[in-house]
Input
Amino acid sequence: MATEAVDLFKEALSLFPGGVNSPVRAMKHLPAPLIIKRAEGAFLYTIDGAKLIDYCMGFGPLILGHRHPVVLDAVRRALEDGWLYGALTRNEVELAKEISSSIKSVEMIRFVNTGTEAVMNAVRLARGFTGRKYIVKFEGNYHGAFDYVLVKAGSGAATWGVPTSAGILDDAVKYTLVAPYNDVEALESVFRNYGNEIALLLVEPIAGNYGLIIPDLEFIKATRELTERYGALLLFDEVITGFRVGLSGAQGLFNIKPDLTTLGKIIGGGFPIGAFGGRRDVMSMVTPQGPVYNAGTFNAHPISVAAGLATIRVIKGGGVYEAANEAAERIANAILDSASRNGFDITVKRIASIFQFYFKRGDVKTPADVRASDEKLYLAFHREALSRGVYFTPSQYEVNFTSAAHSRDVVDETIRVIDEAFKALKTQVH
Ligand SMILES: Cc1ncc(COP(=O)(O)O)c(C=O)c1O
Output
């Protein structure tokens, strides 16, 4: 690392816990985290002068790639008009229409600032609507950094070994039930025991915060059947999957209609946003129409809304999913090929433009399967790829994303690096 980076990280360490402002940005297997100067298309440029092919893509929002010209233009035009009004604007109506025309279960919506806020408000809403106390979440699913759901959580909480955060009162989580993911029988038993007191079942319909776990269709169907049977609401947390796995999200893929949906990431085009939406009778309970309070100085921020609207319109223009999905497919295949040629047991999971790989034999269907894979090898491979210019997601508990900017040339170069990285890994461990 160049002196500039070393000095800056030293300063950062004295100013920020762990030297960063969100835990997964710190990398336990590297002397320092990435320090970024700028980005373009599929590339990140570090202050050290390295050019990296990026498979993190801001942890998901950047499905068009960095600095997409249409988004840039929309943001510039929005800035010219002003950047905060504390009032209704045309663009937020347009964005809501784009969302609800694609995700049919979203009849009404409220824009907030992050995925965390979206889920937090959805929990309050479900309790207000049903008059019940309990919520049910799944082990390894991540729904943001707030008390009611930081129990056996994924993402940074899993990476850093604090799946259940300190500082959370027992009282705050005494109505949070945790069920194993992808296990129909266990879920049935939770509903048999607590069914009539459950306000909300929260689920990542494709789990993207404990690596990538693609659930069985019967499991997802069971979330709908059980909530319906017991009069609880069903929330699909589509903060990652919304507009990522298709225009209608995971609910479109599975053909399931949840009562509530949370969104974030892509619908802000890389700017801060979150949203919760769903059934009209439920959403009508939100202030000022109803008694369940939600408010925010920055709700539906004009710049985020402009960026999100531009992003969704580019997606709807066509070609984005084809490009991003093909890139992910080619990389997933290359990892599988190269790993086996070099004598590593590997499992690769992919859906659309999301993928992750695990140093283990056998399928990955549950968080326990992810934990059973060799994290040390993942991190060693990560280091080898990074030193050759490819930045995969820095934890096996996160996922990789491709974008429309991951062209065939970029993927060819990635495949070359994957092979070199596995060869280098082989000399270390075999
Ligand atoms: C499924 C899911 N829900 C909620 C969140 C929280 O969103 P945010 O980081 O915008 O608060 C995330 C973030 O990664 C997520 O993946």
